[in-house]
Predict the structure.
Amino acid sequence: MMKKGISSLVLVATLALLALLPACAAASASDLDGTSWMLQSYGKPSDLIPVIENTNIPVDFAEGVISGSTGCNAFEGTYEVEGDALTIHYETSPGPRCDLSSIVEQEQMFLSLIVKAESYAIDGDTLTIDCGERVLVLRPR
């Protein structure tokens, strides 16, 4: 009889722990996952440069994949989040598809910064990616 009671107790405890697993997984999921943003500005926090008028730099985060467009070329890669720490790796599509040097310069600045991502913060409707001495500021799209 004692063995049956212990077995029942172990079974109940195991089921209770299994019921908690989805909650643990959800708590560790990134708040970036499943979000879409548009770059608004970049540069030193005290001297932000707005995105060139009539250009769009969308950035999407989904299940560890980052993707978007630089205004010239598409890019796709991976991202990892641990707490507020952010690591990004990407590849661009081949060749510049822009003739305007200012847009190419903006693209190069964006791509050089995003791989230096160290951390991120979401404050209201603003995503700020800290890239060392510079930041990327994005808004939902």
User: Anything to note?
Assistant: The helical segments are 2-28, 101-114. The chain has two domains: 1-29, 31-140. Residues 31-140 form a domain with the Lipocalin fold (CATH 2.40.128.270). The mean pLDDT is 82.
